[in-house]
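re: ur question from yesterday

yeah so i grabbed the chain u mentioned. its 545 aa long if i counted rite. heres the sequnce exactly as i have it in my notes:
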Amino acid sequence: MFVEIRKIRALILLRVGVTYLLLASFFLYGGKFAVFPFPDLLSNLAVFIFILTILYLLVLKKLQKSPDIKTSGRFHVFTYFQIVFDSFIILFLIIITGGIDSWFSFLLLVNVISAGVTLGRAPIMIAASLNSIGYGVIIVLQFYQILKVPYSPTLIGQDFFYNIFANMTALFLTAYLSRNLLIRLERTSSTLKQTESDFQDLYSFHREVIENIPAGLIYTDKAGKIMLFNRPAEKITGILREKAAEKTLYDIFEFVPVQIDIGIFKGTITDYTDDSEKIIEMKISAHINNSGHLLGFVIAFEDQTRITELQRDMKEKEKLAAIGELSANIAHEIRNPLAALRTSVEMLREDSLSGTLKPERTTRIMDIAIKEMDRLNKIITDFLIYSSPKPPSLTSVDLNKVLRESVDMLRTSVITYAEGGKQISINFEEPERLLTINCDEDKIKQVFLNLGINALQSLTDGGSLSISVKHLGGFVKITFSDTGTGIEKDVLKKIFYPFYTTKKGGSGLGLAIVYRIIEEHSGKVKVVSFPQKGTTFDVFLPGGG
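ran it thru and got these structure tokens back, copy pasting raw so excuse formatting
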């Protein structure tokens, strides 16, 4: 309705403007145009249009006071009335300014265009028809002097006919062109409205997404001034977006660089609502346009306080559980040799009390006691190595030399595991080039011996142990691969736990020590095993240049 009111006002102003422009130009030349047969009526017509304009404005004001559906229809009727009445005013002007000799027949074209602009494309042909008929009737009546309007004596009937034809053609051509223009205008307007509607829907969707994502989201300009601050950001920081818009990113998150840079940052902030401290993890990304120019920064962040507390609690529980399991394993491993020692001492005591103490039996019992004491000593020694490791003493070491010495020691112990005629072989592929690493030689040698002994122990039916070395960029990979019994899948994930063992008499600390020593050297150890097919340990150590 607002558009219709604006169109009606424009029509009224156009009418008044054209009228008084023509009137002013008429009096500018002294009102002495010889071709105007009734110049005095021009002033009367101007006064009439002035009064009519006042009436139009009053009617428009009345219609504006009650904007409803009925009023909308009245606006249309009011506009139709003005267009039709304007046609009569223009025809009257043509009559009083000479009929066929009038200079103002072009105003009929303006009337047709005005009809299209104010009422749309539908009535524009009607307006052209009405004006054509009216003009034709006037010219015909003038020709037959029914209208007592003089005209040039040089004009004949054919001139009158051609004048009517030319003006009617101009009116309908104007109507046709205006109609097509209005159709295109309506289509363009419809497309623009649809595009605007789609844009509004898309904007609403994006706004809902931004406001309802669980993470805080901020957008800043290149200088770091905050331009967007979503609802979760308000909740995490305790700052309203209106206040945040007055700050820079650094004002709120002091752990980020003053000169914003992309990347992941983590730090703490103080919640403005309760002064509590919060741990924030933030990712900053650059916003770059199609031309490659930096427009601003997109910052997504989360409150990691609760997660960090849960992780800390979980680590404490895991630590306590590990201590409990370790204590139980230590007690279990120590109890067996202590029980053997107690039994040996009791047997010696009974023999001594009964007077049946024999040297051979005594020696055998004492050997068992010494063996169990050695076993107990080894358990305690291994545990001390595992629980109180000394920092590695790193020196530049020839890895080939360490491996050769380790292999020699393993070969000397093969006879221990080759009882019963089992065939056991150790294959070592020594690299041709010199491989030097920074390590604690004694500890690395212990790793190789522990892995080698474990492999030899798995060769219960004979087999082979293969040891190889490869240089991989900044690392060396040392592989111990055997063809032994392999490790079950459920056991494989526990083999590096301290005191976990499936071997009779094993301490369960050998592989745990391997894992710790390799970690101390910033390396990795990986294991792949298939039951009854064998096991492969890959040790990765930095260096090798």
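noticed a couple things. The radius of gyration is 52 Å. also The first strand starts at residue 216 and ends at 220.
anyway ttyl
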